[in-house]
Amino acid sequence: MRLRKMGLVMAMMLAPAAQADEGMWMPSQLPGIGGQLHAAGFQGNPADLADLTRAPLNAVVKVGGATGAFVSDQGLVLTNHHVAFGVIQYNSNAQRDLIQDGYVAADRSQELPANPDFRLLVTTGFDKVTEQVLARAKGKTGRGYYDAVDAASKALVAECEREAGVRCSVATMFYGRDFYLVKQLELRDLRLVYAPPRAIGNYGDEVDNFMWPRHSGDFTVLRAYVGPDGKPADYAKDNRPYTPPAHLQIAREGVNEGDYVMLAGYPGITYRHRSAAEFADQVQWRLPAAVAAMKQLQDVIEEAGAADAQAKIRYASQLQSLKNGIKRFSGELDGLKRSNAVAVRQQDETAMLAWLGGQRTAKTLRPQIDAAMALIADGSATRERDLLLGLIQSQTQLMRSALRLQRLAHERGKPDAERESGYQQRDEELIAGQLRQVQRRYDPTVEKRLVGALLTRYQQLPEAQRPPEFDAAFGRTPAELAATLDRVYAATKLGDEAQRLHWLKAAPAELVNSDDALLLLAAKLQPALLRIDDERKAREGDLLRLRPAYMQALIAYREHQGRAVYPDANSTLRVSYGKVTPLKARDAVSYAPLTSTTGIVEKNTGVVPFDAPKPLLDAIAKGDYAGYLDPKSGAMPVNFLSNLDTTGGNSGSPVLNAKGELVGLNFDSNWEAVSASWMFDPRYKRAIHVDMRYMRWLMDKVYPAPWLLQELGVPAK
Amino acid sequence: MRLRKMGLVMAMMLAPAAQADEGMWMPSQLPGIGGQLHAAGFQGNPADLADLTRAPLNAVVKVGGATGAFVSDQGLVLTNHHVAFGVIQYNSNAQRDLIQDGYVAADRSQELPANPDFRLLVTTGFDKVTEQVLARAKGKTGRGYYDAVDAASKALVAECEREAGVRCSVATMFYGRDFYLVKQLELRDLRLVYAPPRAIGNYGDEVDNFMWPRHSGDFTVLRAYVGPDGKPADYAKDNRPYTPPAHLQIAREGVNEGDYVMLAGYPGITYRHRSAAEFADQVQWRLPAAVAAMKQLQDVIEEAGAADAQAKIRYASQLQSLKNGIKRFSGELDGLKRSNAVAVRQQDETAMLAWLGGQRTAKTLRPQIDAAMALIADGSATRERDLLLGLIQSQTQLMRSALRLQRLAHERGKPDAERESGYQQRDEELIAGQLRQVQRRYDPTVEKRLVGALLTRYQQLPEAQRPPEFDAAFGRTPAELAATLDRVYAATKLGDEAQRLHWLKAAPAELVNSDDALLLLAAKLQPALLRIDDERKAREGDLLRLRPAYMQALIAYREHQGRAVYPDANSTLRVSYGKVTPLKARDAVSYAPLTSTTGIVEKNTGVVPFDAPKPLLDAIAKGDYAGYLDPKSGAMPVNFLSNLDTTGGNSGSPVLNAKGELVGLNFDSNWEAVSASWMFDPRYKRAIHVDMRYMRWLMDKVYPAPWLLQELGVPAK
């Protein structure tokens, strides 16, 4: 009996390490894991998926900052309702509320232009440029290494973007080991073709967000247009539909539990291959510290709001964002603890290093790995300071404005190409916009308290973490701090919009010698902030130089284990594969992987966000599902759940079946999986998709668009 | 496809009517449904369960207002922690907090006496007395029928209670068709033997209440004592353990999904066999109207509380009780709608009446059924008035006190035996206690607003529902009402406790001619209330006379369908049987029928009510479950779920396996089942039990009581 128990405990501890279906693969890696793909149920040839610039993967595009896919040869694009929300909002007004009512273009002439800054990117090139990027970095260290990589990347991008209508970027895989030049065609004329009403496209809203079971029709159909010459163009009446290099075909049949599925998209960022020390730092310090600091700010705002209704309104949005952050970080922390992430990663790293000791490469790699680890450990010496400085620059309005104005003045002294990103000429419009918004979100008493709370924490840091400029500016005691803040906020005119915009246009010298107390304070702090920035870049340069050794060891170790390694997500196209999978979320609580229209009626209260539109409720009551029902359950599917590996940026990713046909549209993940950016725990990591049968049924029976179904190759029944 | 859909819709509509495992059976009925019992998995002889005064059913007792069972031959009684909570509280003080810490008697000498009013009832007689009860009622109608039944019942009880230490009552089965004289031995010396800490016995408290999955050790062990002569006695040191007529044996093995289980207990009240019109009234009027009225009172109290902190405290308990009532009634309403209860009951009744038309009994039964239905329909003519008068007499303090004092004066004019129950000599102590409590729960402004809110609704009723005495007392306009309340509450001294207790002792004539404005008002209202009471009794008398015809038709119709009929619950011993059953609560949401200690850790926040004690958390971490693990899941069970038919009063009911061994202790039901007092919907009706393996493990490994396990016949491992 005792043995049996031990076995269970071991099984639970090891479960998170099992790599079943984990992975955000570069398409070029897929032939190498073809065996796994076929074992999982894939029926195609993995070699056909190896090139993201060829069909079918070049049908998968970046759109509105997330993912979408071409679904017809005349430029129809399918993405999420929440991804295209800005397009729907842009076309709505008091007379025509497309958010509330949805939109069905009667024919092609009725397709509505998107907001002019809405973009779609078709990846047309993806070339390894490691040698070019690192050519001048070799032999350098720290800031020199960083600058060499930065300069080489900028040069490659500038060269690539000589072609009209094209956007380029350099992406690194495995943290500095490989570099790729990504070339993308930038389409600028997108149009709204079909959107369900908010109460379908966003059914459940914040209440259901992250909460399986979901019942949302979170999809929208757009169409990409190009100029008469076939090139990217701004919106014009005479533009014609874009002919994509490839498009996906909607499946005629649906999925069920256990079915193979795969997904392609542009996941933003993950930390799966960070070192054990970084895992420990995240769980043991970073998340708890960030939550504690944000809670303190929350308390300040709530206390001030209770006494002052006007302040309450001005800080409502910031308060909401703090609450969301606290919830999200707490969820990530809970998840990482539940998955025992620190211990699992530590065991794995220890085993890797032990194995490496017996390899010939150890002599080269181990010193670099040790150096990288020492650098990472050094980072924790200033982590409290860095967290507080980050919050001061993100959670204040006037203080942030003053710091930004001074930094801009500083950067303006350089050629535009050498300016810090975010402070180049093309960024100045954005900065002006931010300076204008201050007015609606600022109250001097609240800001003083926020800054005071953060700087009181700062004053308690050990001396090594305190830049002398800050000590000089704010003093060493709470009383000195309070007096300084009272004096500075009493003698600044930055609370006035005209003043802020005036300083935006002022000459650098004028700013540095400003008679505004807050600007003057910011000028005194700036040397410290620039120095910290320099130190950060030097550290990043060294990590870029050293971390590849860690990755090389990990890749070799995994190869030894018979496993491949995917690079951490970095907004480039990735493919994941897996299965339609239920979720055992908690003791005695299980969730089935398909939801049905029954659940819409169960949840419906008639009140936002559970206020399904009458046409939908009527259609459900009528039950006219012919041709769309799930044959196994006899129910009309709405959403489904898979174990596909996703993260932010995967919104709108197409989900394909074993034959490569489109069966779903990714739009959410489950709450238990918010920690997946660090660790993929197969027990809890799930992705949530719109079932294409639900979309087709809506388009056929509820808000009919037969011409569109025809073009999509799945005619109305 | 269309046919398939119809089939599904039909199946869903009929599902609630399926009677699988439904039923709160009288033990005497069990041999008649022996086939069903065996088909479900029962391995014993149903005839052995037919007599509730013989073993094993006479081991099942009434205790603390709910159910318990003897579990040793020396008087050990097992019931819920929440049923024995008063006993635990009575033995707790600042130095020794048994609520927080639990209690393990080191040996028999350490067993602690219960509060003196705590009682245990062993049923020793259960005899049909229909003929005696109805002998003088035959030929009478209305109030005459009611009084004849009442007098005959009182005479039987008085005769029965001549025996010392015995409590008797008359219970009617099938609403007046059958009457039984119940004789119970009343044990008055109960002692506390074993109670877990609150954070085990009530883990999850109100958050988890009604919410499967649960993780509560809701059990307590008591022991019954009798005098040295073996007769019931008040607590005395020299008393000795009671030797029960029978006791249950704890099973050595546990249960798993699909296993047969049965339960015996004292369910309080159900309405399953009420007429379709009463179902419709409950769903379409009574529940919504009660919720609306209670919400109005909630608003009054919350508004007053926001302006007056003292009033907020005084009405906190009433507010909580209103909120609970609103939640409970809303849940019942949702459940009845979800089960389509009105239509299902209506279809069934229509089919029954149609079938009856073809029977010879129709000539006798149908006129009585029609008369009963007409009476029920009549009741709706005054339902608004009755609801409001009920709320005035339950949701006020001074007004209620005045009415009660006047009614008591009125009743005191009669011989004690003829007084209204609740106003007899033995009730006067209770009334005095209630009059004393007024002080802590009363604020004149709030009470005036509550009475005002209710009487404003009253003023809007049609004339036929308004007794002239009320119109005369309160006027016909809101202005007259407000003036009356201001005047009366300014000129009453009932807010003073000494005054209330003075009037309690005053002579009837003094009260009727009181100089206290509120007492005088109550005296003016009293004739109306007495008249309404008379009308109610007349109606109840006629229903008692006529409803048996409806029941007779139903029983015959069910027999024709091959089904037996159990009487609605009435606090007499009943048996239900069924299976350990999962719950599919909502679309894509399934609950397994067994929870495990894993869930305790998952839920634990360290904060009440999820603050499992350290010894429990340590034991879970240690995982020393040898001999108690569920062999199928390899987990340590805590609670389990069944489809057993239960209602309020079933708390503490023993749950037995197919061999009649004790496997669980009933303590809760699921939220989806709050409507089960009206309709048993097999899709949603579940009962929640403590797994005996969890209790034994706690007694063995966490808070050890080896001598107790020995006595229970399940020695420590």
Q: Oligomeric state of the chains?
A: homodimer
Major pleated sheet of chain A: 11 strands, antiparallel
Determine and state the CATH class of the largest domain in chain A: Mainly Beta
Name the poorly predicted regions of chain A: 1-18
Overall residue-averaged pLDDT value of chain A: 93
The portion of residues assigned to helices of chain A is 40-55%
Q: Whole-number radius of gyration of chain A?
A: 27 Å
**CATH fold descriptor of the largest domain in chain A:** Thrombin, subunit H
Count interface residues per chain for the largest interface: A-B, 29 and 29 residues
Q: In the residues of chain A, how many domains can be counted?
A: 2
Shape of chain A: globular
Q: How much β-strand is present in the residues of chain A?
A: 5-15%
**End-to-end distance of chain A:** 59 Å
Count of DSSP helices of chain A?
26
Total count of strands of chain A: 20
Assign the structural class of chain A, choosing from mainly alpha, mainly beta, alpha/beta, alpha+beta, or little secondary structure: alpha+beta
CATH hierarchy: architecture of the largest domain in chain A: Beta Barrel
Family (chains A, B): Belongs to the peptidase S46 family.
Keywords (chains A, B): Aminopeptidase, Hydrolase, Protease, Serine protease, Signal
InterPro entries (chains A, B): Pep_S46, Peptidase_S1_PA, Peptidase_S1_PA_chymotrypsin
Function (chains A, B): Catalyzes the removal of dipeptides from the N-terminus of oligopeptides.
